[in-house]
Structures are given as structure tokens and as C-alpha cells.
Design a protein that fits this description.
The complex is a heterodimer. Chain A is an alpha/beta fold. Chain A is built from 7 helices and 10 strands. The two termini of chain A are 34 Å apart. Chain B is elongated. Classes of the chains: A alpha/beta, B alpha+beta. Chains A and B meet through α1, α2 and α3 of A and α1, α12 and α16 of B.
């Protein structure tokens, strides 16, 4: 398999509000490669979330082509897309979105159960939490954790099954700068140690400062795609 | 091995809104209670009907000539009465087999005349079968060695103005169509409490009927079984063993109006139960749907993470199943004392029927006892679980239709 995880060509996404058609994406070209630590930035309404939905196989484009892990997204059924999300992708949401009635360990374990993992899932979940320094939170429910802790558990949930690509939607939006930095370092370490790829949609300059690649969207079009060298990263 | 997190998730979700869960369980429980009580009432009324019919001399079933079902003619006689009786005596579970014959007669005393349908009986067997025997409060019932003796109802006695040991002039038509006459002595007068029944009771021995009419043998054999709940099975068993020419009919085919009444009673109560269950289903659907709406983001996130439709349905179904189980327990806890009270004290309909409750020659007990039994447990479970599972269908469909893209669109923490 090539190091291209996502190959987007001339993607158009149109939404209909009553009789009015709105183009959220207007011919986007983008390639996500293994090891990218990519921030998608742009003003509100620029199409960041729509693009993330398409990269995450949550939605399909109106036009153009999207190849995810060498599979044509438009040809995948609803079930195939769910399979793809479950086995190849990890998600981190702005609002953490942990299951409130499950503990941190159970939240991580839950995705493993959905994947069909059997007896080993509890061990895997605990090992993941431990590797991210969250072992002491294992038996706490989301309501017993701070926002920062919840978001780190959400990262643990996203990466427990070692997905190739993790999508994070405004992951630091509800965190203070200290927690945001801890989270970003954690994700960057995961990229470095487990060869994972991260794509963020963000407004946060701190996230941008950590990104190895910054894609700027405006009015549904990619206006810049900046690859950054090591010296620039973490210094904005 | 760790237990299923989907199940744990479902169970704990019920604890999120305790008030709604309690109300849902109460709704299922009350629905269950009403359905259980209605069913206990119908089962009790059915038991009362079968017992009353059997005790009124009709038995649980009847052996009759094969042509009786169409002709219903008193002149018909069993083709193999003796062999029929032998079959019944050799069949385990048969409690009483009482042969009968029926003739139309005129009874006269002085200038007063009354027309009756006389029942020819085997006095010993009849005493085991027919509660009328126990209502003979003047004189006595027939004995095996009685000849030209008769037991009549109190209304007949009043109309003829006769009493014990009076001789009645009896006129019948024999098998050749000739009038036959006999004097019969009144040995007993029955007071059933029902005017209708006391107008029709006129028992005479089978031998006297045979001698007077020339018709040999009996016209029917009324049968009761040890277990009134196994009538259909017993009828099927005996049916296979009877010699040709005679048939066995269950009570509801002998007394078709009673059978029809029983079926319509059951149908009506079943309809009421269904209405109750539908109301419960609508209530629970509404509550479950509200719960799903509140958890829309959660389902969107789960779908985004890759949860499949079947896994979502399983989650919603487990929640419904647990609700159903709790509702069944609540229903049993509420219904059991109610059914127990009415099963032990009965529901007295005397005031409604003014003490005279006879239909089609069947004397009914005005006190109905509901049926308390272990049947209530599976019944409650089926009602509660089926209604909650049906209630979960729409919320489950709603949950799997959740658009996973909304997981990323919902930004508020």
C-alpha cells in the first residue's frame, strides 16, 4: 500500500436548503499521507467540517472523487463506510463525546468491542490508558473528570485500536492552553511512536503551531497547503 | 471474560433518567396488571361456565349418535352404547359417564296438564354428575330399583299442584308412533333456585323410558373428566377409540350458544387486553423516543465511531427488554394480590342476576372466582416484553437513522 491514505480530487459538496443549493466544497484537491500532522484552518463556513466529514467517511461528496485507503468512497455502502470508520479511523470531537454512563476504561473498551475484539479488549484498553498516562482515570466516569482529562480519554478511545488516521474536530476548543498543549504533545507522540496520521480542523493557533502541514480553506476552496519544516513546528 | 459493554451501556442508560424509567415501568406494570386481571377474569368465567355446564348434567363432553349433530332428535339412540360405556370405563381421566335419554311427555294431575322433556337417567351415575340431584329438598332422588318413579322441578309441582307420592298420569309417544300411558309416582321435588330450571326438571329412570317408548338403549352419554383443563385432549383420545356410529362432542358443540358466548367473552376480553397493551405501547414508545431524542448526539457519535445498525438496535432492544422485565415484575406484584382476592372471595353477581342465573338449562353460580395461577408469570412476561419490544421499534429505527455527520456539527460541550 502506498503512503497516501486519502486522495481527494476536485471534490464538490452541495447542500440544499429548501430550493437553494449551497456549495460547501468547490473542487477541493487534497492528499493526506502517512505521518501527516495536518491542520485544516479557515474561517467559519469555509468547509472545514464538511471536508472532515468526507475524509472521515461520514458523508459522501456530490462530485469529484475520494479514495480512502485505496477505496473509492462513493462506491462504499453505508455499512462499508461504518466498517471503514470502525477499523481504519479514529475520531476526536470538540465536545469529547464520551459515553457518560461508561468509565474511561469502558469508553476505550467499547470501540474495541464494536470491532469484535474478545477477551483481550480490557487489557488493551488499560494498556492504552496507561501509555497515555491516564491509568488513574480508568475507573472514572466522564462526569468525574475535567475537560482536559475527558479529551485525553477521547484520544485514548480514538487510538486504542491503532487506526491509521485520526480525525480531530476542534480538539482544543474547550480546553485551556495548558491542557491543549498536553493534548497536542500526546497526539504528536502517538504520531511519532505509532506512525499514526492526524488531521485537525481548527481555529486554534496552538494547534496550527504543532501542525506539520497547514491547509487553509476559504469559501470551499483550498487556498493554501503549507508543508512546514521541523524548525517551524511548535514555534508559532 | 468481560461482560458485554453494549448490555452494560443499555442497563446503565436506564438509570440516567430515573423518573422516566420508573414511569415507564409503572406504565408497563399497570398495563400488565389490567391485562392479567382481565385474563384471570375470563379464565375464571370460562372455568365457571364449564363447571356449571358439567354440574347441570351436560358434562364436559357427550357421546351421541353420529347423526345427532345435524338432527338433534330425541328419538335417536346410540349405535354402540354398551361398547361406548366400556371405552369410557377403560379410559384414564374419565370421572363420570352418565347415560341419558330424552322423551317429550305430557304430565297430568286431575284437570291440570303440563308438557315436559323428560330425562331418562341412570340414578347412580346421575347422582355423581348432576347438581340437580342435590337440590331435591322434598322427598328423595331416584334409586336404581325405582320403577315408575319421577323427580320433578318445584315449578312443575306448583303448576300441577302436586306433592310427594302423588301419582301423575304420563302420556308419551312410542317408537311406533303410538300413544302410551303410565302412572308415575313423584318421589322427589327439586328446588334449584332457578325458575327456568325448576320448570324443566323431570327425571325418570332409563329403564322406564325404554319400557314406555320401546326405544332401546340410551340416546347419549354425558362425561366429566378428572381435569377440566384437558377436555380437548380427552375428547381427541376418546374419539379415536369409539366404535363407528357414535361420536364425541365437547360441551361447546353440544351447547352451541354457550360455546359462542364463551368465545365472544374471550374475544371481547382479548380485545380489551389488546387495547390496554396498545395504550401501553404508545406510552412507552413516546418515552423511549424522548430518550432517543435526548441522546441524539450520543447516537451520532456512536455511528461516527463505526457502530453498526444492528448494534444500535441491540442497544435499544436491551434497554426495552430490561424495561419490559421490570414492568412484568411490577405487573405481577400489582396483579397478584388483586387476583388472589377475587380468586378467594369471588366477585358476586347475585344482585345483577337476582339470584336466578340459568341459561339454556345450565344453572350458573352467581359468584365468579378469578383464576390465580402460575400462568400469570409467562403471561406477564410475554405482555410486558412484547409490548416494550414493539415500543422500541420506532425509537430504534429513529436511532439508526441518526446522521453521523451531526457528531461533528454539534459543537456545544
Amino acid at each position: 500500500m502506498s503512503d497516501t491514505l486519502v486522495d481527494i480530487k476536485k471534490v464538490v459538496k452541495e447542500f440544499h436548503t429548501g430550493k437553494v443549493a449551497v456549495q460547501a466544497l468547490r473542487g477541493v484537491d487534497l492528499v493526506v499521507k502517512t505521518g501527516d500532522f495536518m491542520a485544516i484552518v479557515g474561517p467559519s463556513g469555509s468547509g472545514k467540517t464538511t471536508l472532515l466529514n468526507i475524509i472521515g467517511a461520514l458523508d459522501i461528496p456530490t462530485g469529484g472523487s475520494v479514495n480512502l485507503f485505496d477505496r473509492n468512497l462513493s462506491e462504499l455502502s453505508r455499512k462499508d463506510r461504518a466498517d471503514l470508520r470502525l477499523h481504519q479511523l479514529g475520531f476526536v470531537f470538540q465536545a469529547y463525546n464520551l459515553v457518560p454512563v461508561l468509565t474511561a476504561r469502558e469508553n476505550v473498551e467499547f470501540v474495541l468491542e464494536l470491532q469484535g475484539e474478545g477477551n483481550g479488549r480490557e487489557t488493551t484498553a488499560l494498556a492504552t490508558l496507561e501509555s497515555l498516562g491516564l491509568a488513574d482515570l480508568a475507573d472514572r466516569r466522564p462526569t468525574e473528570m475535567s475537560g482536559g482529562q475527558q479529551q485525553r480519554v477521547a484520544v485514548a478511545r480514538a487510538v486504542a485500536s491503532k487506526p491509521k488516521l485520526v480525525l480531530a474536530d476542534e480538539p482544543t476548543a474547550n480546553l485551556d492552553s495548558e491542557n491543549a498543549e498536553t493534548l497536542l504533545k500526546m497526539m504528536r507522540d502517538l504520531r511519532d511512536t505509532h506512525d499514526m496520521t492526524f488531521v485537525f480542523s481548527t481555529h486554534d493557533p496552538l494547534v496550527v503551531s504543532y501542525a506539520s502541514r497547514v491547509v487553509t480553506l476559504r469559501d470551499g476552496v483550498v487556498v493554501s497547503d503549507e508543508q512546514r519544516n521541523g524548525d517551524e513546528i511548535g514555534e508559532d | 471474560m468481560s461482560s458485554s459493554l453494549v448490555s452494560k451501556f443499555a442497563l446503565r442508560s436506564l438509570g440516567r433518567n430515573i423518573r422516566r424509567t420508573i414511569l415507564s415501568v409503572a406504565g408497563v406494570g399497570i398495563g400488565c396488571t389490567v391485562a392479567l386481571f382481565l385474563t384471570a377474569f375470563v379464565r375464571g368465567s370460562n372455568e365457571l361456565r364449564i363447571r356449571s355446564i358439567a354440574d347441570s348434567g351436560f358434562g364436559h363432553a357427550r357421546i351421541a349418535p353420529a347423526t345427532w349433530e345435524k338432527q338433534r332428535d330425541n328419538d335417536l339412540r346410540l349405535q354402540n352404547g354398551v361398547r361406548d360405556l366400556a371405552v369410557l370405563q377403560g379410559t384414564e381421566g374419565v370421572k363420570v359417564a352418565a347415560p341419558h335419554s330424552r322423551i317429550t311427555a305430557l304430565l297430568a294431575f286431575g284437570t291440570r296438564v303440563i308438557g315436559v322433556e323428560m330425562l331418562g337417567v341412570d340414578p347412580q351415575m346421575e347422582a355423581l354428575l348432576n347438581r340437580v340431584v342435590r337440590t331435591v329438598s322434598e322427598g328423595r332422588y331416584l334409586r336404581a330399583d325405582d320403577r315408575d318413579a319421577v323427580v320433578i322441578g318445584s315449578v312443575i309441582a306448583d303448576r300441577l299442584e302436586v306433592t310427594i307420592d302423588d301419582d301423575l298420569f304420563m302420556t308419551v309417544v312410542d317408537h311406533a308412533g303410538q300413544m302410551q300411558y303410565a302412572m308415575v309416582r313423584i318421589v322427589g321435588i327439586a328446588h334449584t333456585g332457578s325458575k327456568e330450571l325448576d320448570t324443566g326438571i323431570c327425571h325418570i329412570s332409563l329403564d322406564d323410558v325404554e319400557r314406555l317408548t320401546g326405544y332401546a338403549g340410551s340416546a347419549e352419554i354425558s362425561i366429566t373428566f378428572d381435569d377440566p383443563l384437558s377436555i380437548d385432549e380427552m375428547v381427541a383420545q376418546i374419539e379415536g377409540e369409539l366404535p363407528t356410529g357414535d361420536i364425541i362432542l365437547p360441551w361447546n358443540e353440544v351447547l352451541r350458544a354457550q360455546g359462542g358466548d364463551a368465545a365472544s367473552d374471550q374475544g371481547f376480553m382479548r380485545l380489551l387486553s389488546i387495547i390496554v397493551v396498545v395504550v401501553v405501547i404508545l406510552g412507552i414508545t413516546s418515552a423511549q423516543l424522548t430518550a432517543m431524542l435526548e441522546r441524539r448526539r450520543e447516537f451520532a457519535v456512536l455511528m461516527a465511531l463505526g457502530m453498526k445498525d444492528l448494534q444500535v438496535i441491540r442497544l435499544v432492544t436491551i434497554e426495552a427488554l430490561v424495561l419490559g422485565l421490570m414492568g412484568a415484575v411490577a405487573g405481577l406484584l400489582l396483579a397478584t394480590p388483586l387476583v388472589y382476592y377475587t380468586a378467594t372471595n369471588g366477585i358476586d353477581f347475585s344482585a345483577m342476576v337476582e339470584g336466578d342465573f340459568a341459561i339454556e338449562g345450565v344453572l350458573f353460580d352467581p359468584i365468579l372466582y378469578t383464576d390465580l395461577g402460575y400462568w400469570m408469570v409467562p403471561h406477564a412476561l410475554i405482555i410486558a416484553i412484547v409490548s416494550t419490544l414493539v415500543s422500541a421499534l420506532y425509537p430504534a429505527w429513529f436511532a439508526i437513522r441518526t446522521d453521523p455527520t451531526s457528531a461533528l456539527s454539534l459543537r456545544e460541550a
